């Protein structure tokens, strides 16, 4: 449910100090049963739940209509107090995202505006389901496209879902693991050891608990990982970077539904997001060069601000591609503009760019997923939506 | 009968043994199980939980209070308020209905935010017990809405903890999950989702499957969760007036999940036809049917006129009865018997049930015209469920709710607060009525044997172990709960526990309790 409600963590400090030998852990930790990713390439997917306001994050500051329709909450143009950080072509980034702007300007991040999954009904849950199941309908499949992409590879590199519940995007045939921080006090090392012994004849339970111990060992002291979004991305980064770590991670951040008081909420969320992304890069270390990070939300928000200095559910939104493996500095896809005839139903950014074209481009060129599989199994009946080219090295 | 049979009755069929229960069951496990099928007295009726109609009304009261407060606020700022017309045309009613729906959709995130606040949950947990004020604020009503959710979850968990009829409780949960609804959809589903089990599942758990299906498909929780209450036939009066259209969700899941099953012999065209047949199955609301707010109603203004052809059979226009006739045929379709038999075998036996068990249950379903008493009795008497003494293996991994109820039963933990019950479910990754999918919770080992879940169970078990006082020593306790099922390995480890508290924690983590 939330990154603010930590869930499970077995205290590793005690283990490392006293019982590592007993539990058969090497000092470097990992006993994870993952195959290496395709050529060691890592993929991180971050879902921003609640519908992030794309227009106030990737800001079209050249558009007068953007300022006319948002008298109280627009981000000023670059150069003005609180102004956007310049990107290119009349777009700027929200000032709370300096780290992400630096990635863009350094060639390690690209953005897609006016992006949408094939869904335009403005319901969060249905929108998230479509975003994650990779079809054009909320109940199109009961598994997720990232899992089906793992299954499409000859040898699944494995994936970790950060959170207690497996997110829809990771549900399916391919085996995945989960990790979530804990709010329960942690079991003592002796009891963990005894419990592992209980499973001498139950190898499934033994593997599950041993996996928790191993993952916990890799992640180490949670208190060193910051809190909130940052704790989750740093944990994911540590797991991905470990020897034998998984090839993919899926993370969710909630709290983007800014119907009221958007300026404050968004600034605070984005500052946390900025820290989290920089933390992810730091934990990945040398693996950052092999990593692509996809970050998206279920839909965008209305062009016009509402009566409570917020925005309501819209259609076209913003998506983000980051990482050392990314050909950055691009605004991907087309920009429909904000004039009344160009808006969707006269109110929302037109969904000019199908998110599946972004996902497909990354899966094909980063992981080598076969295009036929992308068109049929990973994103069913989507042959009409071609992959974007030239997204990653 | 043997002690092994008692073990199977209590754990494989039931929800886990209470202290001393195995001894009670041992003389006649079959009678113990069958008596639970014919004795229908195990209900939640005495707990004073609210009805679905009251739950829906509670939401509308909240919506109305919220609007009044906003109006009062804008009046105070000098804005004039518009007057409500007393007698409205159907068109005005439709517009009001649509406006309400739009507002309801926008409550989705309120649901998430509210449940992320411990402070709010603690207030809500107490809300239903407060004295009824004549005029309530929207904040008070919001607390009451969540309060009814929390109370229901707490009460059904308490009931499962103390009931001697734990097999019946497992059947109830099986069927509730078969017809899964999720309270998280929006604010109107928060108090309503939990009522369906009491109103549509429990009364029919050993009755006719058709009656259960009709009760579920016309229940407010299902109509809300799968959107049928706003599904409007394109050629109905409302469809002609306004572009609000057909919603296929309930029709699709009725065929795919509730009756025939995937690949059961229906097509997309059949789904659309059935979706048209159930247009008009909706809920009394303040815009239409002011006298029946919250009740199931058939609304002819929404109903797609005409005959419907589903899987080759034509159902003449007959209002509400048109879809009832179709449902009767869905229930009698051979695919349905097979679908239900497979799910039951998978749930009660293992992830790899023997085909002979599936066949047996399928035959019982078909031969009895979907009589769930006969089907449940066939399950009880199936030899596949009763391996010979000495071969009793715990095959099925308990899901998190089953683990918690088994732990609560083992230690008679009936004094947890409403808030504690809710929080623990959340920590274990399985809050009731929130599977997040109309397909319900996963029922396979791989889904529950995840590292984060097993570790969460261990951390919780350590906490519980520290709560236990004045109880037999852990090895003796485990022998009482598992009888001949307690393995030498578990017995040895429990005997070597450093403290009693550790021993109780380990007992909860044994394969014997983790599995059933």
- Main pleated sheet of chain A: 9 strands, mixed
**Distance between the terminal alpha carbons of chain A, to the nearest Å?**
35 Å
Q: Outline the low-pLDDT stretches of chain B.
A: none
Mean pLDDT across the residues of chain A is 87
Given the structure, what is the number of helices of chain A? 11
Largest interface: A-B, 57 and 52 residues
- Identify the overall geometry of chain A: globular
Strand content of chain A: 5-15%
Largest sheet of chain B: 2 strands, antiparallel
Q: What structural class is derived from the secondary structure elements of chain B?
A: mainly alpha
Query: Uncertain runs of chain A with pLDDT below 50, 5 residues or more?
Result: 1-33
Strand percentage of chain B lies at under 5%
The domain tally of chain A reads 1
Helical proportion of chain B, percent range: 55-70%
Beta strands of chain B, count: 4
Indicate the mean pLDDT of chain B: 92
Radius of gyration of chain A: 21 Å
Over all CA atoms, what is the radius of gyration of chain B? Answer: 25 Å
3D architecture notes:
The complex is a heterodimer of chains A (393) and B (516). Chain A has 393 residues and is an alpha/beta fold. Chain A has a single domain, classed as Alkaline Phosphatase, subunit A (3-Layer(aba) Sandwich), CATH 3.40.720. Helix content of chain A is 33%, strand content 15%. In chain A, the strands form 2 sheets. In chain A, strands 1, 5, 6, 7, 8, 9, 10, 11 and 12 form a 9-stranded mixed beta sheet that branches. A 3-stranded antiparallel beta sheet of chain A has the order 2-4-3. The longest helix of chain A has 23 residues, at 262-284. Residues 1-33 of chain A have low confidence and may be disordered. With 516 residues, chain B is mainly alpha-helical. Chain B has a domain at 226-332. Chain B has 28 helices and 4 strands. Chain B has helices at 3-13, 21-25, 29-38, 52-76, 90-105, 108-115, 118-126, 138-162, 166-178, 189-192, 195-201, 209-217, 220-225, 237-241, 249-258, 268-277, 320-332, 334-348, 355-367, 372-381, 400-411, 418-427, 445-448, 451-467, 474-482, 488-495, 500-509, 511-514; strands at residues 281-283, 296-298, 308-310, 313-315. In chain B, the strands form 2 sheets. A two-stranded antiparallel sheet of chain B has the order 1-2. Chain B has a two-stranded antiparallel sheet with strand order 3-4. In chain B, a hairpin with a 2-residue loop joins strand 3 and strand 4. The mean pLDDT of chain B is 92. At the A-B interface, strand 7, helix 6 and helix 7 of A face helix 6, helix 15, helix 23, helix 24 and helix 26 of B.
